[in-house]
Automatic annotation (TrEMBL):
InterPro entries: CCR4/nocturin_mRNA_transcr, Endo/exonu/phosph_ase_sf, Endo/exonuclease/phosphatase, PDE12-like_N. It comes from Podarcis lilfordi. The lineage of its organism: Eukaryota, Metazoa, Chordata, Craniata, Vertebrata. This is 2',5'-phosphodiesterase 12. Its cofactor is Mg(2+). Residues 154-264 form the 2',5'-phosphodiesterase 12-like N-terminal domain. Residues 13-35 are annotated as: Disordered. The keyword Magnesium applies. Pfam families: Exo_endo_phos, PDE12-like_N. It is found in: Mitochondrion matrix.
Length: 604
């Protein structure tokens, strides 16, 4: 944190001499309104930490940063400030030790300036008061003739980044982390590189008041967290100036970041463009737009196998994570969904890309990583429609081993140790989130999200995984939240003719089903399974939801509780011509090897 704050101050030389460009609203809880011309002394003091920090900028422009024990008497901190301020003048010119010694012998250094801290009511704070108590918001630090308004724990940005890949027509959302504030309360100002034009054009821009320092000009419409560059930005870099804020309309020091490269041209028409025509607006009360989507984890897209065997038809650059994230963020944002269940989400992608982007579009994100993996499941829900009551995520293999809910299934598996071992080796997880409607507290929904075992011969493993998942969901919706309807989404790696699909949609599976012997007769396990739900596939049985060079089939589903929910509409899938424009998926116009399923649900 110390290095971040130091870097922020040094990176913003213009802020040393003036207030940030955004007006500070009234009622911020500091003395900014009474003393508008006063410089800032930023104090960071967190009770759980032993030290506090004090940061300010001297009149010569040099930044000063100190860390002091919170329990230390104020007098010692003020003495250190005086000493540092005095050294600032001596260090103004860089000289050799000998030259400095000769200069100091000829002209004695000036005495350290007088330093005092005044409370908000103008009284000098006693020097024996502990630092943690002395440095209060609204106090005034005086160093010689200079006065600094103390701002204790103002909102601060600890991280601010722009994506490496910027495409015209695709939303750019910064990754940012705020301390003592929230990304949703920050102020944003976007700039674009100024085009190389004759001097008269530059003068005109400056006269219009739009030019920013350093060859940057304010981007039209660039005052929101998300900025979508147009074709006019192709070849130009972008800059973002972000001022951290909190819910009390208090603002901290701005910070800026420039893109590492220019905006590039987009890929043209994408597979999801036509689908967005059906999802321009968020659904009204009583409707739930739900999306399930395997987004293709980067850990799988960037393997030699993927590039040369699985997706040899896909241009290498369009398999790059930054490129695919551009497409994915635009696609998901355009669905205006209430609930999104994603599979194969890289941990870093959730934290650095999808989480921040969808948060900016009003969606709260939850993540469940697979055991010993770098990817997992993500569930997003619209904040103004739902609040989170509780989470009940599990690892399927661990639940089978340890949870008493699955004792009967364990007993059935006991005679088949090889199958049992394979189930235990799988890292599949189940994400279960119970949401409550913000408009009607009596309406709750259980959203389950999973990704079952992938192997073509693993039908028996998927049956057992589905049984574990449904038993756990039953526990949540019957024992913890009785009579709560279910939306069960995921990549089930199961076609409509498979045992897992039949089991989920029919409620039972017979012991003679062929999938019990999917890995050969020597590993056949015979058992019957049942669950109490009445589930149906909301999007039916599409011809395919996964389309790669050597395979296409329907593997993804949105199962809904048919007793409580019904389908209002299913958003049409891309046409076969769109899917195969570049032979198969993924492609330059589609970010994954799967296709998102989208439907609008309503309560019965």
């Amino acid at each position: 944190m110390w290095r971040l704050l130091r870097g922020t101050l040094r990176a913003l030389p213009g802020l040393r001499r003036r207030r940030p460009p955004q007006p500070r609203p009234s009622g911020s809880g500091s003395a900014s309104g009474a003393l508008p011309a006063m410089e800032r002394a930023v104090v960071r003091c967190v009770p759980a930490e032993p030290k506090l920090s004090v940061s300010f900028v001297l009149g010569d422009g040099s930044a000063r940063h100190m860390q002091r024990d919170q329990a230390e008497p104020l007098g010692r901190a003020l003495a250190r400030i005086a000493n540092n301020a005095g050294k600032g003048h001596a260090k103004a010119a860089k000289k050799s030790k000998k030259a400095r010694a000769e200069a100091e012998a000829a002209v004695p250094p000036p005495p350290p300036p007088a330093v005092c801290l005044f409370s908000q009511d103008g009284e000098a704070v006693a020097e024996d008061v502990p630092n943690a108590e002395a440095w209060q918001d609204g106090a005034v630090l005086q160093i010689g003739e200079a006065r600094y308004r103390v701002e204790r724990n103002p909102p601060a940005l600890t991280e601010l980044q722009l994506p490496r890949s910027l495409l015209a027509g695709f939303p750019v959302c910064p990754k940012l982390r705020a301390e003592f504030g929230s990304p949703r309360d920050c102020l944003f100002r976007w700039y674009q590189e100024q085009k190389a034009e004759p001097a008269v054009g530059t003068a005109a821009a400056a006269a219009a008041g739009g030019e920013a320092p350093g060859g940057w000009v304010e981007a039209p419409g660039g005052a929101e967290r998300v900025f979508t560059p147009s074709n006019a930005h192709i070849g130009l870099r972008l800059k973002l100036v972000c001022t951290p804020g909190n819910g009390q309309r208090r603002y901290g020091l701005p910070r800026e970041v420039e893109s590492s490269g220019p905006v590039e041209a987009g890929p043209g028409a994408c597979t999801f463009d036509a689908r967005h025509l059906y999802t321009k607006k968020v659904t009204g009360p009583g409707l739930i737009r739900t999306v399930t989507y395997n987004v293709l984890a980067d850990v799988y897209a960037q393997t030699e196998l993927s590039r040369t065997v699985l997706y040899p038809y896909c241009a290498p650059y369009s398999l790059e994570l930054d490129y695919r994230q551009n497409l994915l963020k635009k696609e998901l944002a355009g669905y205006s969904a209430d609930i999104i269940c994603l599979q194969e989400v890289d941990k870093s992608v959730f934290a650095d890309s999808l989480g921040p982007a969808l948060d900016a579009f009003g969606l709260e994100g939850l993540f469940k990583i697979k055991e010993k993996q770098h990817e997992g499941l993500a569930t997003f829900y619209r904040r103004d429609k739902f609040s989170l009551l509780s989470q009940h995520d599990i690892a399927l293999n661990q639940a089978l081993l340890e949870d008493s809910l699955h004792k009967e299934l364990r007993d059935k598996l006991a005679p088949y140790p090889e199958v049992q071992e394979k189930v235990h080796q799988r890292s599949s997880v189940l994400q279960v989130s119970v949401l409550q409607s913000t408009n009607d507290s009596s309406r709750k929904i259980c959203v389950a999200n999973t990704h079952l075992y992938w192997h073509p011969k693993g039908g028996n493993i998927r049956l057992i995984q589905a049984a574990i998942a449904l038993s756990h969901i039953r526990h949540v919706t019957h024992d913890i939240y009785p009579s709560t309807p279910v939306i069960f989404c995921g990549d089930f790696n199961s076609t409509p003719s498979s045992g897992a699909y039949s089991f989920i949609s029919c409620g039972s599976i017979a012991e003679e089903h062929e999938d019990w012997g999917s890995n050969g007769e020597e590993q056949r396990c015979t058992m019957s399974l049942a669950h109490p739900f009445r589930l149906k596939s909301a999007c039916g049985e599409p011809a395919y939801t996964n389309y790669v060079g050597g395979f296409h089939g329907c593997l993804d589903y949105i199962f809904i509780d048919a007793n409580a929910l019904e389908v209002e509409q299913v958003i049409p899938l891309p046409s076969h011509e769109e899917v195969t424009t570049h032979q198969a998926l993924p492609s330059v116009s589609h970010p994954s090897d799967h296709i998102a399923l989208i439907c609008d649900l309503k309560w019965k």
